[in-house]
UniProtKB/TrEMBL annotation:
A molecular function GO annotation: peptidoglycan binding
Source superkingdom: Bacteria
InterPro entries in alphabetical order: SPOR-like_dom
Every SPOR domain range: 124-178
This protein's name: SPOR domain-containing protein
Keywords, in A-Z order: Membrane, Transmembrane, Transmembrane helix
Organism lineage: Bacteria, Pseudomonadati, Bacteroidota, Cytophagia, Cytophagales
Transmembrane spans: 21-40
Native source organism of the sequence: Cytophaga hutchinsonii (strain ATCC 33406 / DSM 1761 / CIP 103989 / NBRC 15051 / NCIMB 9469 / D465)
UniProt-listed Pfam families: SPOR
């Protein structure tokens, strides 16, 4: 079996001739479709309207008063009113929810961690230093073995904590915001 390959010139001629055939077919198709569209517009008559009577296919409504052959007024249905008062039940439910919410003392929030170390004396000194910085801040000392932690504030979100953090960074460069259970302010 000999493998006959076409020379490059013959291959190029073949590709060009196939391309020409495809272009000719597409041009012929476009001309054919446009002529059909033009013919359909010529034969279209807009003056004819279509009408069909569908009354035989519609369901008929039968008035129940005509079946009994009586011209009585329709019966009025009695309106039932409930004497049960929902307001008392709703008020009792709101009171119980209020009481449950009063029992909740802490929520998830943020505090600023100012000190972490093994010295109790150092944590007390840092706590006093924070009080001298701002006496309105709540300062908490926490012992988690093996270290003491000093945390500042009860912030509901990180943005509120970041304002105080910027001020505390001058005195405590290692201060950072940490998630923690915070006390609810009532």
């Amino acid at each position: 079996m000999k493998n006959k390959l076409l020379p490059d010139a013959d291959r190029i001629k073949m590709n060009v001739s196939m391309k020409n055939v495809l272009e000719l077919i597409s041009v012929f198709t476009i001309i054919l479709m446009s002529s059909c569209a033009a013919m359909s517009q010529k034969h279209k008559d807009n003056s004819v309207t279509y009408y069909e009577d569908l009354s035989t296919a519609r369901p008929a409504y039968i008035n129940p008063d005509t079946l009994t052959n009586s011209n009585q007024a329709p019966k009025k249905t009695a309106v039932t009113t409930f004497s049960y008062d929902d307001n008392k039940r709703v008020a009792a439910r709101i009171d119980s929810l209020t009481e449950m919410n009063r029992r909740i003392a802490t929520v998830q929030g943020f505090r600023i961690l100012v000190y972490t170390g093994s010295s109790s004396d150092e944590s007390q000194r840092i706590k006093q230093q924070v009080y001298t910085f701002d006496s309105q801040l709540n300062v908490y000392t926490q012992y988690k073995q093996p270290s003491f932690r000093v945390k500042v504030g009860d912030f509901p979100d990180r943005v509120a904590a970041s304002y105080i953090l910027n001020d505390l960074k001058r005195s405590f460069p290692n201060a950072m915001i940490v998630p923690d259970q915070i006390n609810l302010v009532r």
